[in-house]
Amino acid sequence: EIVMTQSPATLSLSPGERATLSCRASQRVCSTCLAWYQQKPGQAPRLLIYAASTRATGIPPRFSGSGSGTDFTLTISSLQSEDSAVYYCQHNEGWPWTFGQGTKVEI
Amino acid sequence: QVELVESGGGGVQPGGSLRLSCAGSRISFGTFGIHWVRQAPGKGLEWVSFIRPEGTTLYHEDSVGGRFTVSRDNSKNTVYLQMNSLTDEDTAMYYCVKDNPVLEIWGQGTMVTVSS
Questions:
Q1: In chain A, what residues touch B44 (CB-CB under 8 Å)?
Q2: Do B101 and A100 make contact, defined as CB atoms within 8 angstroms?
Q3: Which residue of A has its CA nearest to B107?
Q4: Residue B26: its pLDDT value, please?
Q5: How far is Cα A13 from Cα A33, in angstroms, rounded to an integer?
Q6: Planar angle of CA A59, B26, B60, nearest 5 degrees
Q7: Positive or negative CA dihedral for B93, B96, B100, B104?
Q8: How close is the nearest chain B Cα to the Cα of A59, in Å?
Q9: CB within 8 Å: A44 and B106
Q10: What is the pLDDT of residues B57-101, one digit of tens each?
Q11: What confidence tens digit (pLDDT) does each residue in A12-25 have?
C-alpha cells in the first residue's frame, strides 16, 4: 500500500496570499496517477486536479498542481475566503487507492 | 452530468448488517465504474471498494475484505454496498463516487453509525 503524507497539517494565511501544499508518496507514482480534492465543512469532497496538473471542469485557474515521482504540490496562487477547506491528495497507482491525511487551509 | 444519491445509512448494532444504495441519474449509468469512499467523523478519506461497469469488483482488503460486497443493477441505475459484521470502526459517512478514472463526481453521502 502506498502511503501519502501531506504537509503542513494546517496552513493559516490571509486573502491574496499564496498557498503551497505538499504531498509525498512512499513510492513512485505515475504522473497521471495523482489527484487533489477540496472538502468544505459539511460537504462532499470535490475533484480539483487530476493527472497531477490538470484542473477539473469548473476549477478556477488560481488552483494549480505540479510534481512527479514521489513529490507533488498544490498551489493556490491568490487565496480567496471561499478557499477555506481541507485539501486531500490521492493516488490511483494500483490498488488500494489511498489518500493523504489532508491539509487544512484557514483564511 | 450524472448525479449520485446515496441512501440506506442509519444506526446498527455491532455485528449487524446494512445495505447502502447509490442511485444515478443518467441513462448511461452502466458505462462507468463506481467507487465507495468513507470518512469517519472528524477523520480523513478512505477508499473502500470499486465496481467496474461490467461488475468486476475490488475491495480495500485490510479494512473491509470479506465483510463488504458491492454489486450493481444497471437496469435500475443503482450500485449497492452490502456491509456485514459491522464494527464501530465502520462508523462513517459513505460516499459513492463516479470513476473517470479519478474520483470525479461525488454523492452527498449517507451516514452509518455502528453502536450498541
A1: 88, 99-102
A2: no
A3: A44
A4: 75
A5: 29
A6: 70
A7: negative
A8: 13
A9: yes
A10: 888 888 898 999 999 999 999 999 999 999 999 999 999 999 988
A11: 999 999 999 999 99
